[in-house]
């Protein structure tokens, strides 16, 4: 099991955020949420050592050889600013930006992951992942992901004119419930939540203190039999939640006018 160790500096913290889905439901409404996310990054840049962006930063992202999607310049610029300040940024590819290639790595200097990763921070063991496709069930989405990541399908898609490709992709992203996340807004119970089931299975063979995921949009901290904490980071659509680790983990809300955090389970 490969593991990355992060030695926290005095007074520094690790931040986590997921599922911003910038671009949805339209550019005007997305811009309001983007501005809020930028204000949050401005706030954390003074004590952040590491920032984990846990997937679905964009509602859809595809890189052609010489073209990237229009927009997001202020968000990308702020991420670049944080990186230039010496903050290490890890980006987990989600199910909406799974066609991410090398743009964030080459232009900004992020470290990009396409699957789960193990970290040690502050003497604690972490398993981090966007969360899509892990655990039992979710078969419809898993089949869909195989199609989207198929090299032949990607080859055909890249030959579409970007204007046409983006229009099709954004429509599917918002209308298809398996892609949009509309099916994942309610807590189903520990025995039916596929990421909780997955985490409990991991605990049988591995020592993990924190399981941290995006994808589910519902912010949550759950105690797993006194052995570990299961964490859903929530989103920047309804909850505007983020995680912060400084010898312990907290789930917080940025700003006002958001849904209240569900009670801890």
From TrEMBL:
It comes from the Bacteria. GO terms for biological process: lipid A biosynthetic process. One of its GO terms (molecular function) is UDP-2,3-diacylglucosamine hydrolase activity. One of its GO terms (cellular component) is membrane. Residues 13-218 form the Calcineurin-like phosphoesterase domain. Keywords: Cell inner membrane, Cell membrane, Hydrolase, Manganese, Membrane, Metal-binding. It holds the Pfam family Metallophos. PANTHER family: UDP-2,3-DIACYLGLUCOSAMINE HYDROLASE (PTHR34990:SF1), UDP-2,3-DIACYLGLUCOSAMINE HYDROLASE-RELATED (PTHR34990). This is UDP-2,3-diacylglucosamine hydrolase. It comes from Chryseobacterium arachidis.
